[in-house]
Amino acid sequence: MEPATDDEIRTIKVYFNPAITFGVPMRPPSSTLDVLQTVTRRRPLLEALESEPRDKQALCESLECSRSTVDRGIRELEWLQFLRRDEGTYRLTVAGRLALAEQRRSAETLESIGDASELLADVPRGAPMSAALLAGARTIEPPSHAPAKPLQAIVDLVSSAERVRGVSAAERVPQLRTQLYDSVVDGDLEGEAVVTAEFARFIREEYPDWVTDVVIDGGFDLHVIDSVPYELALVETPSESRVFVFVHDESTAIRGLIENETPEAFEWGERVYREFRDASTPLSPSM
């Protein structure tokens, strides 16, 4: 008998390949990408089973699709063990619920990254950045007639804050300097900041009394660094903790604000602040 030709071998593989014959694989996906694509594609089916088990007819009605479409989705998710048949109905497994939650989280994070993509274009390459900051964040672009308006949120928070930390390259709103004075000198606000060398010189020259009262006598520590890729603020009140990132252009003009109050975002902000703090030096009285 003559050996099979290449064309004959390909025909045999196609004929006996369930993925081609039935349109679905007969084994679980072989890579993380396969799993991600399956969960994304079958998210409506996972969500239809989230609250309670359902049979195929109920799934068809809920999803407004054909029986064959539901059958394919069920087979794919069964192979992943994301759902299980139970007395004629289908229910999510623990793995299925986790996969659905993670897909939602990833989709929301990607949407947040997309919302901030234009603003992030002004962040220097290599600057500390994380999806943790962007997930669930608000992105605000200042109006042209009031470029400092987004910073008002920080001024309002500082009035009731217990602790404030920041990284800054310029004075944005005089109200913040005034509020810091009141909260440190007349209150019990704890705080510190990392500022650029140029900004530090400006503060000492323009507001020597403020430096004396707030920094030297008030205990609000100032540290100096050569430059910063963006500005950062961490504000803690008795009821909440928020992180703010101000993106600026080369002239230090504010391009926009990213604000987040999730624990993950605040933890990221604390790590980044420590990096700036560790790379800085204490403000010298003679600077």
From TrEMBL:
**Domain HVO-A0261-like N-terminal span(s) in chain numbering:** 33-112
Output the InterPro entries linked to this UniProt entry: FilR1_middle_dom (IPR013561), HVO_A0261-like_N (IPR057527), WH-like_DNA-bd_sf (IPR036388), WH_DNA-bd_sf (IPR036390)
Q: Where is the Methanogenesis regulatory protein FilR1 middle domain?
A: 147-278
The record's listing under Gene3D superfamilies reads:
Winged helix-like DNA-binding domain superfamily/Winged helix DNA-binding domain (1.10.10.10)
Q: Membrane-spanning residues where?
A: none
User: What name does UniProt use for this protein?
Assistant: Transcriptional regulator
Q: Name its species.
A: Natronococcus pandeyae
